[in-house]
Amino acid sequence: MKKNLSLDFVDRTIRTTSIVLLIVFIFGIYYLGVYDSLAIFSGGIWAIINLMFLSVLVKAAIKPGEVDKMRVIGLALIKFPLLYISGYFLLQVTIFRVEYIAIGFSIPLAVIILKVIARALFGLDEKTQKDEHLEGAL
Length: 138
Description:
This protein is an all-alpha fold. It has 5 helices and no strands. The radius of gyration is 18 Å and the shape is flat. The mean pLDDT is 87.
């Protein structure tokens, strides 16, 4: 059974962001220094975890049929207070500069924007729809 394209977009974004973070971390050690590169990496990891929790929370809360309210409440209690408190403490680490943490926070957003632009420029949505239509006809 095929995954929904819109749900798969978040998973592909997380994988792409992870690869981008590793590349930035490796080259950042040389060009920026260990602590600044680690600050970008830590901010990016926090943003990936935030995106994962948001994705799971939306999938649990917005679905056809009956919603498991305890699961939604549990995910919300983990995501909002705990994740954002950890982000606050990440910003309080004195060896990390805030601007590099902010760069890490924004890397998943940059990946999402670039993926959307690429899909629009190369017409991948139309191609995917045509391929699905042809598979359905067979």
